[in-house]
Amino acid sequence: MSRFTLFLGASLLLTVLAKDLNQNLRSNDGMPRSRRGIVGTDTRSTVSASNVFTYPYSTSMCISNDNSTCFCSGTLISKGHILTAGHCIQDNFGSTNITGVFNAPYSGTYIDVGVAAYYAVETTHLPNKWKTDELSTHDYGLILLKPDADGDHAGELHGYMSFGHSSAIQLSWTFNTLGYSAPDLQNRNDPWMYYAYNTLYAKSNKWLNHSIDTYEGMSGGPLYYYDATTLTRTIYGVHTGWSELSGDTEDDTTYNQGVRISSYRFGQICDWIDEAPNMSVCT
Q: What angle do CA 122, 149, 194 make, to 5 degrees?
């Protein structure tokens, strides 16, 4: 079946997080696995708690393994699927033991469970090369959520974003991301959603290297482009960590990186989505 870059419903981007368990690690192919990445001055903007439930921020999901804090992020890209980083599902060749995902503001360093929208996990999908080798170029995955107690799917209630692939991506394009930072790692007490944007530094068929400010806990957040002509937002990559293009270190980040959605990866993600009844968003 042929696939094209398209999508239904919401066409924006999302992201999430608050506490990354995988600090100072490397993938099996030696690429950095730390998630820190402030490039020079921190230019991120906060998304107020009052906006967390409005679109597109409502599509941002906090991935949890204790039902109270976040350790990764994900983006709703169908009625029931979250696009995220592979290491948010499996890390160091073991499960991250996801207990569920939330759409909620934070109170202190914990999810405000009184207003959180909670969804349990039905199943997960990973590329074989992440399952067996944890190669950094395959650090992406998909989570299928169970409907809530009323039988409603997350994407039906919160909206979901477009994702796609394109050979027309230019270094001059401005890419955006959203996500929760871990406040205890920044000596701050403001664990709100952050928004940031910047242009690309480099690109290949596997990577989108960028200068967008991120921090611990923002792994899995999308890299999306807003087309002002068509008024659409499309996810073209998944943020996975900082890069060493210039030999930089975790404390001296020059660029960050994300796995690029290629035509092959797009088709794979669409096939995963199609395995669930009445979820298809690809043509």
A: 70
